[in-house]
Amino acid sequence: VQLVESGGGLVQPGGSLTQSCAASGFFFSAYAMGWIRQAPGKEREVIAAVTSDGRTYYADSVKGRFTISRDNAKSTLYLQMNAMKPEDTAVYYCARGAGGCADYRCFELAFYENWGQGTRVTVSS
């Protein structure tokens, strides 16, 4: 299993950024996937998840601003981040779930078995 994130960087408050995660080594379309972040001095949190059948879940902190999506043909996971805030500054990880999930299960860190290396996103003027 390999997960490689790209697209992090510096963005101004109110700006947008799109992150990608290229997956390989497993049957991508069969697994729930998630984006997890860790802000400086804080614990990791699951901010968005998408199931194998396309259902999406969002943490309250990003709901309405971030969009998770997947392209099964390309084995790629995306996170579109809009209206970004300084508190979105974090290292962002792409992760593969242990099969399927629904509701609260998609937000449990323990559900995610494999993680990418992470990309740093900084929101600052």
Structure summary:
With 125 residues, this protein is mainly beta. The chain is built from no helices and eleven strands. The mean pLDDT is 96.
Radius of gyration: 13 Å
Q: In terms of structural class, how would the helical and strand content be classed?
A: mainly beta
Most strands sheet: 7 strands, mixed
Shape: globular
Helix and strand element order = EEEEEEEEEEE
Report the strand count. Answer: 11
Estimate the strand proportion.
over 45%
Q: Can you tell me the residue ranges where pLDDT is under 50 for at least 5 consecutive residues?
A: none
Q: What's the mean pLDDT score? A: 96
How would you describe what is shown here?
This protein is mostly beta strands. The protein contains no helices and eleven strands. The protein has strands at residues 2-6, 9-11, 17-24, 33-38, 45-50, 56-58, 66-71, 76-81, 90-97, 112-115, 119-123. The strands form two sheets. Strands 2, 4, 5, 6, 9, 10 and 11 form a seven-stranded mixed sheet that branches. A hairpin with a 6-residue loop joins β4 and β5 (45-50). It is globular and about 40 Å long. It starts with a strand and ends with a strand.
